[in-house]
Write a structure and sequence with these properties.
With 254 residues, this protein is an alpha/beta fold. Helix content is 32%, strand content 22%. It has an 8-stranded mixed β-sheet, sandwiched between helices. The protein starts with a strand and ends in a 9-residue tail after the last helix.
Length: 254
């Protein structure tokens, strides 16, 4: 049966009770629908990431993407992103507060199945790794080329005081990792280091690295786009979510 989709901006309660905007897309059917938390890349809460949120909703998920740069507004996604960079980045503790707020928003919807996954890109991939190690409500995670999961002591800052790799023992949900072999952040050696830590601590994970692909190979509006890798990566992402979140009741076809 044909189902439609609703996509709109909503307000969620983020870290420290702050009210932040979020882009929310979901099927119009009564559900139940698993939820997916979408974490945008460093360029911000832009149209490309909103399109990804709708893409996930079209597969039958309730998908929400909080604007992690909201506090640096008003302004365009690029303007807010630049202010975030100049300030030293989004603090990890603030990200976790915003992520928990968005998850609670998903779980409070009457059509929620009670299952929630997370996916993120670039800096958002790093944040996915942190969330998977700190938010027990998550049932599945997808890290898309998240850099700075491996951090040297000199790379640690007030905003990012702990290397995500050191959080690995606390990971509580299965992790899918998608990477490009030509990427410099993370490079293949860093990906291997992360995989070794996951193996050491007995975590459930799958890593896939694509030859001829670099950073942001899902991005259809960038020269980095690699169609075959992107198609395979999306297929693996939705198979991962279906395995750990359950099969969606209906897709928003059309």
């Amino acid at each position: 049966m044909y189902e439609g989709m609703i996509a709109e901006t909503v307000t969620v309660t983020g870290d420290c009770g702050d009210q932040i905007e979020a882009y929310f897309a979901r099927p119009t059917g009564s559900g139940p629908h698993p939820g997916v938390l979408v974490i945008h890349h460093m360029p911000g809460w832009d149209q490309g990431c909103k399109e990804i949120t709708r893409k996930i909703a079209a597969q039958g998920y309730a998908a929400i993407m909080p604007n992690l740069h909201h506090r640096m507004g008003p302004g365009t996604a690029a303007e807010m992103s630049q202010r975030v960079r100049e300030s030293g980045g989004v603090p990890d503790s603030q990200f976790l507060g915003d992520a928990r707020g968005a998850i609670q928003y998903l779980l409070a919807q009457p059509y929620s199945s009670g299952k929630v996954g997370i996916i993120g890109f670039c800096s958002g991939g790093r944040q996915v790794y942190i969330a998977a190690c700190n938010i027990e409500e998550l049932d599945a995670a997808v890290d898309c080329w998240g850099g700075r999961v491996v951090m040297a002591p000199e790379d640690l800052t007030e905003a990012n005081p702990v290397s995500p790799l050191d959080m690995t023992p606390n990971m509580s949900c299965p992790l899918l990792g998608l990477f490009g072999e030509d990427d410099a952040n993370p490079d293949p050696a860093q990906v291997a280091t992360i995989e070794a830590a996951l193996k050491e601590h007995g975590k459930t994970y799958e890593f896939h690295s694509y030859a001829g692909a670099g950073h942001a190979f899902f991005s259809v509006d960038r020269p980095a786009y690699r169609v075959e890798a992107a198609i395979d990566g999306w297929n693996k992402t939705f198979a991962w979510f279906e395995k750990y979140l359950g099969e969606p009741t209906a897709k928003a076809l059309g």
